[in-house]
Design a protein that fits this description.
The complex is a heterodimer of chains A (350) and B (448).
Chain A: H1 6-31, H2 39-55, H3 63-93, H4 110-117, H5 119-150, H6 157-165, H7 172-186, H8 200-228, H9 232-240, H10 245-256, H11 258-273, H12 277-282, E1 289-292, E2 295-297, H13 304-313, H14 318-349
Antiparallel strand pairs in A: 1-2
Helix pairs in contact in A: 1-2, 4-14, 5-6, 5-8, 5-11, 6-8, 8-11, 11-14, 13-14
Chain B: H1 2-24, H2 30-33, H3 39-45, E1 55-59, H4 65-79, E2 83-87, H5 94-103, E3 110-113, H6 116-121, E4 142-144, E5 147-152, E6 156-158, E7 160-163, H7 164-170, H8 180-192, H9 194-197, E8 201-204, H10 213-226, H11 235-241, H12 248-264, H13 267-270, H14 275-283, E9 287-290, H15 296-301, H16 305-310, E10 316-319, E11 330-333, E12 337-340, H17 346-357, H18 359-368, H19 387-395, E13 399-400, H20 411-425, H21 431-447
Parallel strand pairs in B: 1-2, 1-3, 8-9, 11-13
Antiparallel strand pairs in B: 3-12, 4-5, 5-12, 6-11, 7-9, 7-10
Helix pairs in contact in B: 4-18, 8-12, 10-20, 12-21, 20-21
Classes of the chains: A mainly alpha (350), B alpha/beta (448).
Chain lengths: 350, 448
């Protein structure tokens, strides 16, 4: 943009105008339901022309900003289309009587009120929190112990590391069905003729076990990385000072792993909250609760994500499901923010 | 230099990503629902809005996919009109997938609907077919305020299926099962002769709530709603629709029968058995009764063919679920219907359905797919173990309807299935407690 000549200004303005016309024309054709095959190329050419025009716009002051915007645009656009717009639409739908096809009226907060009056949903929130707490503790505990084993320098460590990690490579749905078979046909012989999956309490335990089995190997890998990154001279110094294995573990290794713990708690927390596939394939939320707030519930093991899915799909109530999903998003966002803040603070202190 | 290269690579990856999005867009979701073999054909199906590309039918019975394709091929040979068959099954929620298709502007021209709730999704978007020729040839079409909007393609029956050869050997006459006492007596007789007959249990009855909720919560519960009633009697389904109420006396009688099933079922499968195990057990002659409907005939003669042959390809029949004296009907209905979406292709869709209801279509549907024709003019009889017993009941006028299709969406899965499991497990001790729990659960479910 060496010259600010009127010629280049004209050129850029023409490009901008042509681009906009193409863009708007294509969109108008699309929204009016036209099947004309020109509209696709027209849209793309319109966008390209618009940005070329923008790039050649004769300004020195804003040229840099314009370039930034042009480069950021593809990413921002995809982010908006796949995340921001669906999120806003979803929040919008939660205030209507949307059926998944259309909505006829705006119902205000009715969905949100119905949701909190539903004991089954309260139960789902309740057991999700229990599940999250149990998992956060147990997965990290098992993963850390496995990591200690895998860094202890014994023979065949590579093999064990790989085999602990292997369950994580199996998808949750497949894994759920495999374990359903195990619980219903193999372990039933130990558990006295009644499968663990048929009663709420044992079924919840079953989900926790399967989840640990699936997830501990993955978290273990992160701990292994953390443990191997502890500088050798620190460990050597501890040894020379006469620290035994326990002291080394608690006074040296664990404090030095603070950031790893942050990452792992964060990962287990959010993934346990979003638990869906194992839950669906293993019990699909079945299990009875004879008396919860005076009600008989038949969704004993149904966690939040599955409850939302079920509300929309099985009960054919999309709007209520959407309202629950908005709450789910809020809970998850809050928990994650608090978690990150606390962890960051602790990291600094240590 | 290195940085520049890296930037180039990243920009390239991004462009590729966007390009890939563009490529995928024209055929939304066609790949994940249609079997791999359809991949090529899906291309032709994608621009559903246009005409001249043929029509597309979404079928909900994956087991007859090949036969429907055969019918479509024959139709194309005769008329030159292409029909694309897209089959869904195996746990796919069809209505939900269809909603996705609708949002993606990829609606099929004909699709399956199975209940009032399903049809309710598409209020005002379906073609009224009351003027079609086939409509006067059947009583099984789906009708509501919007007209005749469902094309029936088969008939299924819910009844207490039995192994006729075994009952004969044990000296139990299935015709004698006309009330709860007779049923109990038959069960006791069979139970006492278990070893002699090679039975594992008297009845194959599974209440596992995760995968078999539909068997208990819909099909078994259907007997409370309809058994013994005339086809248009909606007394109990109307009561249910009115805030989830049940008739406690009738239900308790029904509950006692369920208790009898719990008692005489195979304990290994009662609370955690699967559909496959249940049918295999019946097909291999290990159970004298089974609590599944006529559709198991298809499984017995295909997947379980060997076991069924080994057990002597025994004759099957159906007794009424006689939980009260005088109940003498089995429940028959079209299990689901094909609806025509109101679009530019509707004339072609209607023509294809009409063709299916005529001789050439019926020959494939009945003789190959094993459907039991809902059309009066059809002369084909399927070679299904249950076909004979269904036509016998139909001819005698001893059939009741399936008003459970009016149940609130998801009621079996989200409310009833678990209660049946608890009853089988013993956490709900008796018929009285079962009745009161069901009553409570249903009222709760309808109040939501």
């Amino acid at each position: 943009m060496k010259t600010n000549s009127t010629g280049s200004k004209m050129f850029s303005l023409i490009l901008l105008a042509a681009g906009l016309i193409g863009l708007i024309g294509a969109l108008a054709m699309d929204f009016s339901g036209s099947q004309n095959a020109v509209r696709g190329p027209m849209l793309i050419i319109g966008v390209v022309l618009f940005f070329v025009g923008l790039y050649f716009f004769p300004t020195l002051k804003y040229h840099r900003q314009i370039v930034y915007v042009i480069f950021l645009f593809p990413l921002l656009f995809s982010f908006a289309v796949t995340v921001i717009i669906p999120l806003l639409l979803g929040i919008g739908y939660s205030f209507t009587d949307w059926t998944g096809i259309k909505f006829t009226q705006v119902v205000g907060f009715a969905n949100y009120i119905a949701m909190f009056k539903d004991p089954a949903f309260i139960w789902s929130i309740f057991i999700t929190f229990i599940f999250v707490v149990m998992n956060m503790v147990l997965v990290n505990l098992f993963a850390f112990l496995l990591a200690l084993l895998c860094t202890s320098g014994m023979k065949g460590v590579g093999f064990f590391r790989a085999s602990y990690f292997l369950p994580n490579l199996i998808g949750g749905i497949v894994l759920g069905y495999i374990w359903q078979f195990v619980f219903n046909n193999v372990l039933i012989k130990i558990t006295g003729g009644i499968s663990w999956l048929v009663q709420t309490r044992t079924a919840l335990m079953a989900i926790v076990i399967v989840y640990i089995w699936q997830y501990a190997g993955y978290i273990m890998l992160i701990y292994v990385t953390g443990l191997t990154q502890i500088p050798g001279d620190v460990l050597e110094a501890a040894k020379i000072d006469g620290a035994n294995a326990t002291q080394t573990l608690f006074e040296v290794k664990i404090p030095m792993l603070a950031s790893t713990f942050t990452i792992c708690t964060f990962l287990t927390l959010t993934s346990a909250f979003k638990q869906f596939d194992v839950n669906m394939a293993l019990t699909n939320g079945t299990g009875s609760v004879p008396n919860f707030l005076g009600n008989y519930l038949s969704n004993g093991t149904q966690m939040l994500a599955l409850n939302i899915y079920n509300t929309a799909i099985a009960k054919n109530n999309y709007a209520l499901g959407q309202a629950k999903a908005v709450l789910f998003f809020i809970i998850l966002a809050c928990v994650s923010l608090v978690q990150v803040r606390i962890s960051n603070k602790r990291e600094v202190e240590l | 230099m290195k940085k520049k290269l890296l930037a180039m690579v990243m920009a390239g990856a991004m462009v590729l990503g966007l390009a890939a999005c563009g490529e995928a867009a024209p055929a939304p979701a066609a790949g994940d629902a249609a079997p791999a073999a359809d991949a090529g054909a899906a291309e032709t199906a994608a621009p559903s809005g246009g005409s001249g590309e043929g029509i597309r039918l979404v079928n909900g019975k994956i087991e007859v996919d090949a036969m429907l394709k055969e019918a479509a091929a024959l139709y194309e040979e005769e008329t030159g009109k292409h029909v694309e068959i897209e089959s869904m099954g195996g746990g796919v929620n069809i209505q939900d997938t269809l909603k996705g298709y609708y949002q993606a502007d990829n609606m099929p021209d004909i699709f399956v609907c199975g209940s009032d709730a399903d049809f309710g999704n598409w209020d005002g978007m379906l073609v009224d077919m009351s003027g079609e020729k086939w409509a006067s040839d059947t009583d099984a079409a789906y009708k509501n305020d919007f007209g005749t909007i469902g094309f029936p393609y088969t008939t299924e029956a819910i009844g207490l299926a039995y192994n006729a050869d075994l009952l004969e050997k044990a000296g139990v006459d299935p015709k004698s099962i006309t009330g709860p006492d007779a049923m109990k007596k038959a069960f006791e007789t069979l139970d006492s002769k278990k070893d002699e007959l090679g039975l594992t249990a008297v009845i194959g009855w599974c209440t596992e709530p995760k995968d078999l909720y539909w068997s208990t919560g819909s099909h078994s519960f259907a007997n409370y709603l309809d058994s013994g009633l005339s086809r248009d009697d909606t007394t109990y389904s109307d009561m249910l629709a009115d805030g989830g109420k049940i008739d406690e006396t009738r239900f308790e009688h029904y509950a006692e029968m369920v208790g009898l099933f719990n008692q005489y079922s195979d304990p290994a499968l009662l609370t955690s058995g699967t559909y496959d195990q249940q049918i295999l057990g019946f097909a291999s002659g290990k159970y004298a009764f089974v609590t599944q409907g006529s559709w198991i005939g298809a499984t017995m003669t295909s997947d379980d063919k060997d076991a069924y042959a080994e057990a002597g390809n025994f004759k099957c029949g159906m007794a009424p679920y006689a939980f009260e004296d005088g109940i003498d009907t089995i429940l028959t209905n079209s299990p689901s219907w094909w609806a025509v979406f109101d679009n530019d292709n509707k004339a072609d869709s209607l023509a294809f359905l009409q063709w299916l209801s005529e001789d050439k279509g019926q020959e494939i549907l009945v003789m190959k797919a094993g459907f039991i024709s809902p059309f009066k003019s059809c002369t084909f009889v399927a070679e299904d173990p249950f076909a004979a017993t269904i036509s016998e009941y139909t001819a005698a006028g001893k059939t009741s309807s399936w008003h459970w299709l009016k149940n609130k969406a998801g009621m079996d899965q989200n409310a009833l299935g678990q209660v049946y499991a608890d009853y089988a497990l013993g956490t709900i001790p008796d018929a009285k407690a079962f009745t009161s729990t069901v009553s409570q659960v249903l009222q709760q479910y309808y109040a939501e």
